[in-house]
Every structure is written in structure tokens, then in C-alpha cells.
Amino acid sequence: MRWPTPLALTTTGSTSSAGADTPSVRVSSCEDERVDGGGFSLSDLATGEIVSVAIGDHAVAFTFEGRPTLLIDIGDAPDVFHATEQAVSPRWTWWSNRTALKIIELGVRPAKCWDLSAAHRLLFGGWRSGPEQIWARLHNLDTASIPHRMPVTLFNQALDAGDLGEPVGPDGHLRPEWVDGDWSKSSAQVVSWADTALAMQQLQSRYIDDLHHGPQLRATVLSESAAELLCAELEVDGLPVDAAVAASIIAGFVGPRPRDAAEAAAELKRRDDDVLQHLPPGITFDLRSPDQVKSLLRRVGIEVPDTRAWRLEALRDAHPIVEPLLAWRRAERVLTTFGYAWVDEHIGPDGRLRGLWSGSDGAAGRMTASAGLHNMPAELRPAVSAESGYAFVRADLGQIEPRILAAVSGDPKLAAATRADDMYAPVAEQLRVEREIAKVAVLGAMYGQTTGKGAEALRRLEREYPVAMGYLANADQAAQGGNDLRTYGGRLVPMTAININGVSDRDARSRAAARGRFGRNAMIQGAAAEFFKTWAVLMRARSNHLNARIVLCLHDELLIHVPEDRAAETAALLDRCLQEAAHRWAPVRSDGLQPVRFVSDTSVVGAWSEAKD
DNA sequence: GATTTCACGTA
DNA sequence: CGTACGTGAAATCC
Q1: Which protein residues have a C-beta closer than 7 A to any atom of strand B?
Q2: CA(A286)–C1'(B4) in Å?
Q3: Residue A50 sits in which domain range?
Q4: A92, A116, A163, A333: least surrounded by Cβ within 10 Å?
Q5: Do A271 and A373 lie in a common domain?
Q6: Tens of pLDDT along A409-434?
Q7: Do A473 and A574 fall within a single domain?
Q8: For residue A373, is it within any domain?
Q9: Alpha-carbon distance A103 to A113, whole Å?
Q10: Is residue A157's beta carbon less than 7 angstroms from any atom in nucleic acid strand C?
Q11: How many CB atoms lie within 10 A of CB A158?
Q12: Within 10 Å of residue A256's Cβ, how many Cβ atoms?
């Protein structure tokens, strides 16, 4: 698709409203060329779907029915985005949510999009999903041959816009100069880059059709795209945290905030001495060094292969130094990872903890977050508290993994068990074992349990739920054979994603077993991640009128910040969204029943720590 | 200076 | 039970 001479224009900031229904934008000039574009009325666009492509950090090219319509500078025109969302709520197309972030920072919340990067990670697996990767895979080019740009040196200055040429180089790859995006763009080049992105959207769409993975694949692309919008919003909004409460909790572990270096050193020594006093005077070890801790333990007669907490836990009574050592470890964790430095670095003056969010990193496509948002110790959760006049609605999915297994495998008997609030109860009855045994057996089957107490229960599981167990065995076998997997929602799980390092010292058999475990786990964990994101983005889309904001996603748990008087409504809506997500995953049967039931535990709280099971 | 290992928090 | 992630400090590599 080549575009005609683009109407490459910027607004003058004079978005005039002719009326609430027909906002219009007057366009006049561009960075480096003048194109007489005349007037532009958003109401003209209301009849069809806009495809819009945001470019780099700044400019955005709008297209309508394949024709370039408008090019603007993001920072210049928040009102244009706002009006566009209001009038037509387009499905934006962009290379990644870094563009969405720019718009969200202006206070506009795009409703929907096609995120090329998210779609790419879904379709092809892995982490890398820049324009050059997207282009290469869709053109069957070897990603190893993607060219890299020479580092910029004194003698190798950044290119002028005029030196860029076409986006595609002679080797068939996107030119790295274009991908890097730190070039000054002419309007024609911006439009050309938009052209490229739109072409990728069409190729991805065709790729989806050709995979024949069922209607859920396209639905997953849209859900994962929306999840990227959610991620950008999570980065902008942040998690409400009371820094004073956080500081007082930290003080309980490591003492008050030191005023100077000497005080910090004294506090450090005091904590070290709590442990070292159990040794003969004069003997000292660096407690921060695992090797030295091992030597320390050897000196008091304890020999261990490593000094991990769970191992030392069992040796509490072996020597009086073990107990204070464990306490030291705990305090050290708080001090180094979640101490005052963490508070200072990640909690803003507005009382929001902010980190970077990824919608689908990793092997199975779960969301990830930095700044400790996903591994904050439970002891710190009281500091995560709603602002004045607000409340949290927190909800987590109950027994999500076995329910997912029932759904993706299509096992009718296991699906029947999901009708119970506690699905392990009917499973236990079926297996004629205790509930705990049944639970361990089901989890063991999903995770590839190796140490076997539940061996007998596992055999019974295979007899009673052959479809579900067959699904897992199939994934295990495929992964052991080095074959890539694809989740129920359509995410490719490449077997290259498995971390070989951790098992490199084992023999071939245990490596194969590790691959098998990885495979069966990825199919469940990945599908659960997809289901969770569907739930979350439905809630995001449905809750605008409540002023509710999702402020934390934690694999199976949602935390929503909402005005107090809308909390009950929000909780009710959250449940309806869960039912909608379940329905989208598996339409109702002929008898009108939902084949697999999903449940959540939902509560309205003032702080995250409350009402947590 | 960059990379790996150990340890540990979360699900 | 087992998988995944992000983190920080020490140890190791180059």
C-alpha cells in the first residue's frame, strides 16, 4: 500500500468545537513543508473505523479508510486525541504501547488498539518485539540477520532525516536507522513509517487467519493489546502507597532511618553483632556473603550445601546462631530491596509507587512489573492504602489453575467439578481420597510433580479425568521432544524459552523431564494469564463511569482504586466481567450451563493487607 | 565493567 | 509439589 501525497499537517493548537457532536480540527502547517489541508471534521470520520498509527515519540498519522488524513504532534494536541476518542473511539494501531503512554500522559485514555508488539509476542513467542523483529518474522526473514546500527561516535554522527532513504533496506530488513527512531522526521517519513506499521497490522491479521487456531486467537490479540494499554495506565497512575506507613514498617525491621553514614554503619554493626555474638569473640564473618555464612555454620558444626532459608529453617535447634541468622536475613532483605532507598526511589511525592509494566514478558506470557510491585513482602501491604475518600476493591481468582485446566482441556468431568466453590471437594469424592490428597495430586499433575507421595492419587486422576490428564501429558511429551507449544488463547511457547542454565549440570533424562514440566506448566500458566488479562481489560473497558482505576495486577489478583461510594458497584461489576470473560472463553452449552465456572473472592478494603485469605 | 551465582520476595 | 518473574550483593569472568 502506497499512500498518495500525505496531508501531513500539525494543528496550531486551535481545536475549535463547532458543537459537542462535531469537534473539528483546523490544520495548517507541518515541520518542514506546507500542505494546504483545509478543515478537518471528526464527524466526517464517525461513519467508519479509523486506523491510526502513532509514530515514535511525537507525531501521529491518522488514516481513514486507508487514506492518510492528519498528522499531528502528540504534545501539541491533547484535545485532538480527546475529541477523537469521544467521537469515534478508534482502534489505534501502534508499534508498541510506548506511544499509548505518550497519549495517556496527556490525560487521554484510548479505549482500544492493535498493539503490534503484543501481537508479535503472542504469535511468535519470546521477548523481542521491536519493528525490526515484527517485520522480519512476517516476511520470513531470519531474525539473526537483522542489521544493527553502528554506535554513534564523533566521526559517525546521527543521520539527517534526508539520509534515511526508504524504511526497507537492500537486505529486505527494516533499516536500523528507522527502527531506532531518534531521527528527525519529515512529515513524509512519518507517514511512510505509519504506512509500514499499517502493513504489519494487515500481515499479522492474515497470519492469524492462516494459523487456523480458532476464533479465540484474534480475541486474544485484542485482549493482549488492551492489556498493553492497561500497562501504560498502571505506569502513569501508580499504586497508592502511604510512604509514612511504609517507613514505619521498615523501621520495625531495621530501625529508624539513619541520619548520616555513621549512624547507618552503627546500625549495621548492631545487626551484625546480634548474630556474631554467638561466636567466640574476635571471630567475624561477612554475613552478606553466602560462602562465608557456610564457613560460619561449619565452624559451629553445621554442614550445608547451601544456606537458603528453608534449609536453615530445619536447623533452628541445631545451634543458637541459626535463629538470629534467619532474622538477620529477613532484615537484610528489607534493608537492601525494600528499605528506605526503595521508598525514596519508587514512591513519588504524590504517594504513588511506580514501576514499569510489561503485558506479556516471559515464557508463558504473564504480566511483569518492576519496582517491587510483584514481589512486595506481605508485611509491607498495610502501606498500600486507598486515598482519602477512596477505597480498594480487591479480588482474586479462586483455584484458577485447575479451572483453567478444565476449560482448555475440555474435560467434561473436571468441568462439572468447577461447579463447586471448592472444586477439590468433588474431585476428592470422585477419587475417593482426602481433599488434601486430591489437591496435591491435581497440582502435581499440572506442575509435573516428581517427588511422589501422591503417586496412587495420580493414577486415579488419570483414570477419572483422562481428557485433562491427556492434555497435560501431550504438552509434556511435545515439550520433551523440543516442539513448540501454543496455549489455548494462541500464544506460542517456544522451547528455546526454557532456561537451560539452571539444569545444565543435570543429565539428559532430568533435562528432558525439566522441559516436560516447563511445557505442561506453560500451557496452564499461560492460559491463566490470558484469562486474567481478559478479565482485567473487560473491567477496564466497563468501569469508566465509576471512576475506577486498576492500580495493581498480580497474576490472579486485581486491586482497584475507586471513590468510596462506588465501591459496591465496582465489586458487582467485577463479578459480571468475570462471567463475561468465562463466557468469551467457552460459550454456554446447549443446556444453558456455563461449562466451566470461574469464581473470585472480592472485598472492599481500605488497605491491601485487609481481608486477605 | 559486564556477567553469573546465590538468595528471596511474589503468584 | 513446580514454574515464572525482578531485585541486590557477592563472586566470577574478561
Answers
A1: A 290, 293-294, 306-310, 329-330, 333, 374-378, 396, 501, 554-557
A2: 20
A3: 1-212
A4: A163
A5: no
A6: 999 999 999 999 999 999 999 999 99
A7: no
A8: yes
A9: 13
A10: no
A11: 12
A12: 13
